From TrEMBL:
Location of the DUF4130 domain: 91-257
The protein, known as: TIGR03915 family putative DNA repair protein
Domain of life of the source: Bacteria
Length: 259
């Protein structure tokens, strides 16, 4: 068995798909793995995969052209999922590879996503739903605040790589604003400049002290909102358990009134 060891990212997995396909070892003898835990299989040859944006774009273009945009977006959402959140029947990267191979072998390949009895499709469905659910949850309560520079800033602690979902939504909703959405869990940020598209950048060196320098108006609005939140609360009807269900505690650090 030939196992292509790839990075756990969209570019890493798509590059793995490209290299595995180009190897001509035969799909039955190939697996992809994004698991870097060090657990190795006996009698297998491990082949390292270096992320390559050109190879990744070629795989993306093939999926969009031959299988459609919906299929491509589903695969991307799966690639963005944290595969450690749940027990899966197979590696995330291998599920993506097997699904693409199966889809390209069929006349109506995009319909392969309906074959939920297939282990790879079941895995794709679970991970895609996981990413979409968290993205939808964060869209409901993500909070921007204004910095002294006038930039709108928001911080999240996401389990899955949902920045593209959030950035796409807010680029459409706030096209004239300069904003940054910082994912502290992955140390990545979506940066949007007025009237332009967003960029996903490495934010591991971001100076978080600068993100706490609010504009004068922001300070006033934060105090006003917290005062409103406290004033409408009814002591006898406080329900911490329900509150934790609606907004899990891991999100509280990013929510002004629950800090």
């Amino acid at each position: 068995m030939y196992i292509f060891q790839c990075e756990d990212s969209i570019d890493g997995i798509f590059t793995g798909v490209y290299d595995a396909w180009a190897s001509h070892y035969g799909h039955k003898h190939i697996q992809l793995s994004s698991d870097n835990s060090g657990n190795l299989m006996l009698f297998s040859e491990y082949i390292p995969v270096i992320p390559d944006s050109d190879k990744s774009r070629k795989v993306s273009r093939t999926m969009i052209t031959r299988l459609g945009t919906d299929f491509y977006e589903t695969i991307c959402k799966c690639a963005m999922a944290d595969s450690h959140c749940r027990k899966l029947t197979m590696d995330k990267a291998n599920a993506i590879y097997q699904t693409i191979v199966m889809a390209l072998a069929l006349p109506e390949g995009a319909k392969v996503l309906e074959y939920l009895s297939e282990p790879c499709i079941s895995c794709i469905f679970e991970l895609c739903r996981q990413t979409a659910n968290e993205g939808h949850h964060l869209l409901e309560f993500l909070r921007f605040y204004e910095l002294k520079s006038g930039i709108l800033f928001a911080q999240i602690h996401a389990k899955n790589d949902v920045l593209p979902i959030l950035a796409t939504h807010f680029t459409d909703r706030l096209p004239l604003e300069n904003f940054i959405i910082y994912d502290a869990s992955h140390q990545m940020a979506a940066v949007h400049t007025s009237s332009k598209d967003y960029l996903i950048v490495d934010a591991s060196t971001l100076n978080l002290d600068l993100t706490k320098e609010y504009s004068s108006e922001e300070e006033g609005f934060r105090k006003l909102w917290c005062t409103f939140f406290d004033s409408i609360a009814i002591e006898a009807r406080k329900n911490p358990k329900l509150q934790s269900q609606n907004i899990p505690k891991r999100f509280w650090d990013d929510t002004v009134e629950l800090k």
